[in-house]
Amino acid sequence: MPDPKLLECFANPRPGRDFVIEHIAEEFTSVCPKTGHPDFGTVTLRFVPDGLCVELKSFKLYLQSFRNEGIFYEAVTNRIADDLEQAMEPKGMVVETNWKGRGGIRSVIRVSTGDASRLDM
Amino acid sequence: MPDPKLLECFANPRPGRDFVIEHIAEEFTSVCPKTGHPDFGTVTLRFVPDGLCVELKSFKLYLQSFRNEGIFYEAVTNRIADDLEQAMEPKGMVVETNWKGRGGIRSVIRVSTGDASRLDM
Amino acid sequence: MPDPKLLECFANPRPGRDFVIEHIAEEFTSVCPKTGHPDFGTVTLRFVPDGLCVELKSFKLYLQSFRNEGIFYEAVTNRIADDLEQAMEPKGMVVETNWKGRGGIRSVIRVSTGDASRLDM
Amino acid sequence: MPDPKLLECFANPRPGRDFVIEHIAEEFTSVCPKTGHPDFGTVTLRFVPDGLCVELKSFKLYLQSFRNEGIFYEAVTNRIADDLEQAMEPKGMVVETNWKGRGGIRSVIRVSTGDASRLDM
Amino acid sequence: MPDPKLLECFANPRPGRDFVIEHIAEEFTSVCPKTGHPDFGTVTLRFVPDGLCVELKSFKLYLQSFRNEGIFYEAVTNRIADDLEQAMEPKGMVVETNWKGRGGIRSVIRVSTGDASRLDM
Amino acid sequence: MPDPKLLECFANPRPGRDFVIEHIAEEFTSVCPKTGHPDFGTVTLRFVPDGLCVELKSFKLYLQSFRNEGIFYEAVTNRIADDLEQAMEPKGMVVETNWKGRGGIRSVIRVSTGDASRLDM
Amino acid sequence: MPDPKLLECFANPRPGRDFVIEHIAEEFTSVCPKTGHPDFGTVTLRFVPDGLCVELKSFKLYLQSFRNEGIFYEAVTNRIADDLEQAMEPKGMVVETNWKGRGGIRSVIRVSTGDASRLDM
Amino acid sequence: MPDPKLLECFANPRPGRDFVIEHIAEEFTSVCPKTGHPDFGTVTLRFVPDGLCVELKSFKLYLQSFRNEGIFYEAVTNRIADDLEQAMEPKGMVVETNWKGRGGIRSVIRVSTGDASRLDM
Amino acid sequence: MPDPKLLECFANPRPGRDFVIEHIAEEFTSVCPKTGHPDFGTVTLRFVPDGLCVELKSFKLYLQSFRNEGIFYEAVTNRIADDLEQAMEPKGMVVETNWKGRGGIRSVIRVSTGDASRLDM
Amino acid sequence: MPDPKLLECFANPRPGRDFVIEHIAEEFTSVCPKTGHPDFGTVTLRFVPDGLCVELKSFKLYLQSFRNEGIFYEAVTNRIADDLEQAMEPKGMVVETNWKGRGGIRSVIRVSTGDASRLDM
Q1: pTM of the model
Q2: Which of B51, B57, D53, E63 has the fewest CB atoms lying closer than 10 Å?
Q3: 3-state DSSP call for residue D54?
């Protein structure tokens, strides 16, 4: 079951400067609530930290907690964005999920929060 | 025969936030009305939902309904955009078709509706 | 309906020499007899002609005749090999079909007839 | 000899909406007027139609009419743009030629006419 | 739990001819028995059928049954080979697993049974 | 008109040793005798010289002499092999033509003469 | 131990003109302070020089001085940016580190200083 | 020795229209003045002509004149830009050099002159 | 210092069957004994186990023990082969190292022991 | 002027075992004796050493000595093979040169000496 309490943060090591952190997790899997078949995809997180940065291993464990969860593409993506928003309160953030094809169609969902223009640096 | 009634929608799971949904269907085929030969291409749909999102399997069946239809590249693309516009009324949308070559020339058609700048997030 | 009578041949223009002809058709489509959904794939034909060579446009029309046929991967491949064997009687031949994925699994079927070692030149 | 009368147009099927049409011809050839050696390249046409769209087969025949013409890269590109401008009067257009290398140098020429910013949709 | 009873077979549609069937499942996942972390990889099955062929959807469900099983790379690969050997008794077979990296090292395991030289056609 | 007299040779600079020479001409064009449309392809020549080697610029001019010739794929390939065989009498030779697609099908023709196994070094 | 004194500079050879210098070091390695395992990545430096440019060999030796240093991704990137800022005082600069995956997640960190918009030329 | 007098120009064939000319020379070599070892790279020139365009063969000979010159990356790039600026006086121009790696670091230098925004068409 | 005692083995889980295990370590680094500069490369180990298989994490730690060792390409490769030969006594084994370029030249070293033909399955 | 005396060797560090050494030099240049224009290519050396191995830096300097030499493709390749044969007397060797295109044709020359089958390990 997706568990936001798995997310741990550390203090931004360079709080006086805007910079971009990107984590790309290519081995995400959850379950389609309609068919029961597994879904596979890549989760990309990109953000400008304010006071806190998500710790990498805790982020991995958090993503693994979706492994047997029945949840749609759109819901996964918004949920990850909401949980990270609450944990880190970044200045700007994008969460993108990129799903392997099902029945000849593959999908991408992209959510941004805060001031996403800061990510263009 | 292309049938827009095949398109089913579900309620936007996160109505208070702009986000982007992209579906890429790499196995589209219709028929050239001039020569009778099949055309093959990729259909890409990208939109920011308002109240409704197109359901993925219904979108696949809708695209399959073009299989034996004689229709030109430009007409296919505008028709898909019109049918989705009517079904979902998204805040912004782009429909792009990317066709395999015929006689050494390959083509791309791109239609946008609504406020397409919202897709740049 | 697959129609072998569509296959036309022309006389081998260089009958005294072994040489290899390969045709790669990247836009093959048929229908899954179980689900009714379309299948998409590439058909590769490679042969050493004896007295006859299949004419390219007739081969294209023959492949198009599978468009609305419900037929399994293994049967398509063996059927194409049988029809070409009967039409051309080549010295050696390989027919390979390479199918786009369904449910996360993609497949390849390869059939050879006659003396396939002649194709290694 | 390049012949603009080969260009045929059909009425824009969706005149009330801006959309982009792109044709990519990867098998263009003309002749270098200086050395007499053939030049090979790709011609890309991208435009927003106003009242007329160039018909695909007529565009192919028009491009083939350059086959034995001695003409420089810059002149080919501007000539194609001028002929299409006159035939279609599009709202905006880009013509780009991308030439295979000669003596270790390859070249790209890009011409735009009308309001090219409409192509950014 | 891996369940070989999920494997269903159908009769070889062309028993009098040697031919090759290859299924490539790019979305395999199991669990490392040592660390509890998920492993991800691709399973490739290639065989010359004798009397029976594994049915594609049943093969998918069989592979999904490893999802929460703690099992090493070498054991997964040999187990899949053993289960398919018992279910189909093919004339020759190769099972290969190709694993995404862990700690900077990625691995491939390849098992063959029967007369694997028949797969070289 | 294809003109074998354009082929010039120079003496093998190292006659006492078997070695392989390969020339890859990616800009070949001729004309389809049936439709009158141009064909485009790559010609690859690979040989072990005996007493003579074809001179590179003369080979280019020879290939250019096919530019406006109406000739089928199989005939082009065998003709180039025959002309080079007569001009150089190599110990072993392969001529391969690789054609861009027409109507969704692309083709490869491969002819070998002499002792082609010498090319495997 | 990272040693900024290794950085040597030379006078900008064209001080009256804005231009961009980019150095891409694909063989960077440091050590994870948590696990003690080595990290591997690419460091990209892009800047518009003011009066000084970093000398290439000294930059290599400076990067090598991180080889056995235990330091996190975010700290490495900010430290390199700070040391170069102090050594060169460029008009604008971006430092990006691109790390190979650990546990299925790979990361990118990007820091900019000064007027980074000058880099867009 | 680099020799700007090698650069010859011809009159812009379409002076009333802004268009972009790009020449990419992938076989540039000069010598490192410090180590005496050869440097290899690609030179890209992109410009909007005013009254004059550089002639392609003279540009090749000009680049070859750097072959045995000891000169740094930054100086090569600015020198080429200065010589072309003086020869053609283009409306806008970018010269970019892209160097193969030395000691694990590869470099890119980019210089623009005039109104480079005209190149964005 | 390279330490073969770091290598741990586990019993072959399927001793009665020949199968191939391949581990690809893309993040190997050692030091050039001549220049003191770091070398970077990929180590590929491929073997048919007899009674023992090298444990993956111990193999990683063993490779890390070369990090600060001054040792030539040829010596690294033979040493890894010797240490694994002694630890596992495989039926056949290949060790290949693939080094990033130095001064424009990159190198590959390949050592095999035992009956390497067993690896061709 | 090509100078074989630049080639230095060191003693084979593992004389009792056949193994393969491969050096790939991607930045080779010489001059066409006919046109005076520079030629660019890649030189690949692959050998099984007997008593001696060519030292890498001396091999680089030897290749650089061809920089301003007018010499044909076939002669370069045979000359490098002869010089290395004399310097090292390897058990088996292949020298391959791979040249960038001239006039739309690119070439590969491959020479082997001694027992080249030993390189297949």
Answers
A1: 0.95
A2: B51
A3: strand
